[in-house]
Here is the input.
Amino acid sequence: MIPRHRCVIFAALLAAACRAGAPRAELPLPPPAPARGDTSCTIAAGRAVARDTITFAVTDPVDPAHAPLPRNDAERLVFGQLYESLIRVDCQGRALAGLAATWQQATGDRWAFTLRDNARFWDGAPVTARDVLASWRSHDATLAADFTVTGDRTFTVPASAAPFQRLADQALAVTKPAPAGSWPIGTGRYWMTGGDPASPDVLVAQPMARAGYPVVKLATVPASAARDALDGEAGVLITDDPAALEYARTLPGYVDIPLEWNRTYVLLAPGRDKPVVGDLRLESLREAVRGDARPAEWSGPGRFWFTDLESCGVPAGRDTLGAAGRRRRIVYKQSDRSAADLAARLVGLGALGRGAVAAGVPPTAFESALRAGTDAAYVLELRRRVYDVCRTALELPPWISAATVAPLLDVRSHAVVRRGLPRMTLDWDGTLRLSPP
Amino acid sequence: MSFRARLLLGFGAVVLVPLTVFGLRVRVVMTNRLTTEYQQRVAALASVIRADLDRQSAGIAQRLAALREAIAQDNKFRSAVVQQGGERSYLLDYAGDAMRLAGLSVLQIQDGTGRIVSSGHFRNEYDRSDPALPRLLAAAPEGTALVEARTAEASFLALARVDSLRVFGRLFTLVGGIPVDSSLLGRLTPDSELRVAVALPSDTASVADPAAQVVTSLDVPFVTAGDSARLLPARIVVSHSLASLTALRRGVALSFLVAVLVTGLIALLLASWLSTRISRPLTELAAKTADVDMDRLDVAFDSDRPDEIGALSRLLGAMTERLRAGAARLREAERRLAMGDLARQVNHDVKNGLIPIRNVFRHFAQAAGEGPDQLAAAFRDRQATVESSIAYLETLASNYARLYPQPARESCDVNAVVRETVKRVGETGQADLCLELAEALRPVRTDPLVLRRILENLIGNAVDSLAARAGNVTVSTGANGAAGVRITVADTGKGMTQEELNRAFDDFYTTKPGGTGLGLSIVRRLVLDANGTLRVETEPGAGSRFIVELPSEGA
Here is the structure.
């Protein structure tokens, strides 16, 4: 048996290796051929032991309606097992084979792709180039407009100025609608069978091929019950709850692996007249939230993607409402505890002046309020890394071009992994995938 | 104003005035009593509220003392505040956890400089400097004051106290409190009609509800927020909703009004019944008295009442009896006078008839003395005179014989007699005769011949009154109450003057050429003999109405 301290050191070294290879702001040019995998993006907690079932415990909700594009860490973990894009991008930013086995530069300034031989949907149907075209049409009509099918499993797309890695975007995962309208049918290594009859709150994903892959159970637990999941049979817990993390560190059977800083909280204020957080001591924001956070920073070249959207053709707008026409409140999504803490801290620091308040609203109301832009400021969480900036920019409110965006904090979740679990790999956008056995 | 109306007013005044005075008095007494009890209750309530506030303040002080002990024993807290780089998150979360465990809604831990090191009600307000708050709270009377506690979402009013402790020689203050919300204010008074509110120095109107009245207020210090924080007086205002009192007064007034109306109505009904009971005999006496005249003296004034009404009725009966006797004597005197007049008239008439005869006989005697030829000549000469006188006497005898018919008493159909008489008179064609006969007329008990003579005279007079003028005569019949029949002969003739009317029933008075002057006299006597009455309504130039009223059979 491996001594405990050696396992901890090994896991820490792996995590440090991932952080050391932190992604850069701009992705590298596409390599002429898929990169060969290495272990720099592998997460392992001790020696892997074969097992039949792994339970993923998550504290965020998982909604099939969002598939295949995840909205939170839990969905990113689940969708990563179920759906595939043409390519993957590992934590180093290197393009890896996904649904496409190979690709190359083709004539006419195009990229030619060849699908994996054994690529099949969950229902057993082989994945063809026309399936890719149909799926893209439903997600990205622009990209599908110049899609050319050259064979049953080959096709070409125009080589654009956009990074090649954008083809790894989960929004471009190849799916087809399910007859019952529930989970879209994907091509990943797992397919969602539905709930566990013994535990209605647990989803069960079966491996497509019994080649050593374990069955994956997905248990959604409230943050307050995260420790219960650790005391139970959870193999992986994705959480940012400090109490659960503190408890996990006391458990010898688990390893706490910090994931990437993959989310950034920003203060979005309509209008560019006066900076909302101009003289405030933002360094104290990190103490305002309970989870793992750091001051928002962009270590690579360039800036945060959401601060430079002019290249996407977003016109520079003008604030027509003015500060006087807006309610002096900082609005946040009620279910987002970190956003609530940040809004409260900003009020405590005197942002917007005396008399301003923080206002938490339900998620649907928050979307409406954000789109209307009638409040003085909004605290919202944005993905720190995106493959396709311009497509993601469409998720921002229409007045973004006439707004002030102040990055506040970077946050990340932790994966508490049971020792002996199969290895997992970490993609550039923070997606965890079970590695092949 | 009638006697009955006066009785009604009198009864009403007698009942309503005392009732109104009584009601007003009851209302005044009730209002005074309510006011007194209300003032006593308010005074007691103010003491209860003050005691409750003191109890709440003591509770806060106890909880702060317990927290002070707990903090002093908490090594993690000590480490966080003493050692740089200690568990900062533990310190920031400390006040929130401690506040909830202690049952407080406000808890703020500040260091000696006034910097907030941990806040329970506003966790992320840390590092803000607020040195004035603990200082002012410590200076507040009783150590308690109202403060405006701030959270990220809103501010709320709290009743707060301050405590302090030292950790590693460094001073820390604990500001703790409970919210002064509707729940606390509601607990201060169990009376739902009383409302407790807080009036801050910035409030211009202490009682927003216009239907409420401030009954008392308690002074509580208030710590203002901001850079120029200081202690200002605030008030806990107890107001009373006047709605229920107004409703009570309105209810009492309504009840009083209803009572007055009901009692007044009963009084009016009682007064009406009493006045009717009192005035009805008088009214009946008046009606009977109105029926009395010289031709109708058989009105009965009998009464068994022992009171003044009975005495009055009996007096009127006695008076009527005396009138009846007087009338009989007067009628006898008139009859005797008429008989005297008639005797003298007969004497005169007979003499007038006999005088020619006596003269003729004297002539015959003289002629007989002169020879049979002379007698025969005288007879031839005077035969006409004798025959004329005899005729005159016969006529006279017939006339006088008609003065005293011998009527029979039998059931007589008035309408049949009227029709027959009108038919016979109408055959002369002297005037238009109209008939207006009532149906189902009860028969009268009299001699049909007498009735016919009455009608012949009246209709004949009516026709004669028309003379050469165009007009008509209307004969109508009808019931005269329940026990009589009325026959009316109306004409549109020349009518009578008052002087003519006064003498119309005198014997031998006539205005017609060739009239005997006995017609109406006979009619009057025949009507009286039939126990009836005869009245005349006349107007010169417009005509006359002769009204005969006869008792019905069995009346």
Observations:
- Chain A has two domains: 4-187+415-434, 263-412.
- The domain at 4-187+415-434 of chain A is CATH 3.90.76.10 (Dipeptide-binding Protein; domain 1).
